[in-house]
Amino acid sequence: MSTGIVIVGANGRMGRTISGLAAADPEYRLAGLVDSKEHLDALSGASCPVSDDLEALLPQAQGAVIIDFTAPAVSLHSARLAARSGHALVIGTTGFSEEEKEELRVLAAETPLFWSSNMSIGVNVLLKILPELTRALGDNYDIEMVELHHNRKKDSPSGTALTLGECLAEARGWELPDVRCSSRDGIIGARPKTQIGIQAIRGGDVVGVHTVYFMGPGERIEVSHQAHSRENFAQGALRAAAWLALQKPGRLYSMQDTF
Fold first, then answer.
1. Integer angstrom CA distances of residue 258 from 2, 4, 10, 247
2. Does the pLDDT of residue 58 top 80, yes or no?
3. What's the domain count of the chain?
4. Is residue 87 among the annotated active site residues?
5. What residues contact residue 14 under an 8 Å CB cut-off, 6+ apart?
6. Are both 126 and 234 inside the same structural domain?
7. Catalytic: which of 128, 150, 153, 248?
8. 46 forms bridges with which residues in the sheet?
9. Do both 90 and 157 map to the same domain?
10. Tag placement on the chain: N or C end, fewer CB within 10 Å?
11. Would the pLDDT of 153 be above 80?
């Protein structure tokens, strides 16, 4: 049986990519498209209900999984509605505050919720490998990261960079907020050993590049992930939706749970 999909932000770049892949794959069926009023004309002709109101659309999409790649406030609203209606929800939005993440964890007790800062299979494999590399190299290797994204990205550093940074810090026994450095300017002195630098570059239409540097005595190791297309993230979101449709509430799921 195909998995019904409701897309919030359906006229956005990720929304259009996800809907195109879902429409072309018999494992999925479009059950609804949601976007703001000014974008509804662009969604006319769709083979499913279209609305600027997710709450009004959900009764027409019983059993469907919502996918939301929008903004933190919008995604939180989607999560609250999903908790009330019992719909499963996959969130790919980044930029959540710690308080907003905690609210998602609370709502996950009421309905299946999934959040990942990056839906790429490759990035999520890195989340498993990087801590092992960090521990194997030891404390003599400084850790830095550079992330590169398109000029329309609103949050910095990227959610993916922060997630990667968290796994690196945890491998050292640190908390990322205590050791992260995302700005260096002027006479700042020697680099502290207890530090992870995460720097952001913005420009053009770059989908996403994350490079982690391990710099030690006489050598440097670079681990880089380059996303060539948004289809990579869209396929991951659809895979997550099909998996989430079979799960029960209880905790905030992530891409790691799907492996």
1. 18, 18, 24, 11
2. yes
3. 2
4. no
5. 69, 92, 230, 233, 234, 237
6. no
7. 153
8. none
9. no
10. N
11. yes
For this structure, is 150 an active site residue?
no
Query: What pTM, to 2 d.p., does this model score?
Result: 0.81
For residue 76, the one-letter residue type is: L
Distance CA 104, CA 101 (A): 5
Residue 79: give its domain's CATH number: 3.40.50.720
pLDDT-derived band of residue 71, with 50, 70 and 90 as boundaries?
very high
Does residue 103 sit in the same domain as residue 172? Answer: no
Q: From the CB of residue 68, how many other CB atoms can be counted at a distance below 10 Å?
A: 27
Place of tokens 């980044």: 94
Structural domain range at position 155: 121-227
Of the candidates 56, 155, 172, 39, the one whose C-alpha atom is nearest the C-alpha of residue 100 is 155
- Report the CATH number that the domain containing residue 223 is assigned in CATH: 3.30.360.10
Q: Which of 87, 149, 210, 225 is catalytic?
A: 149
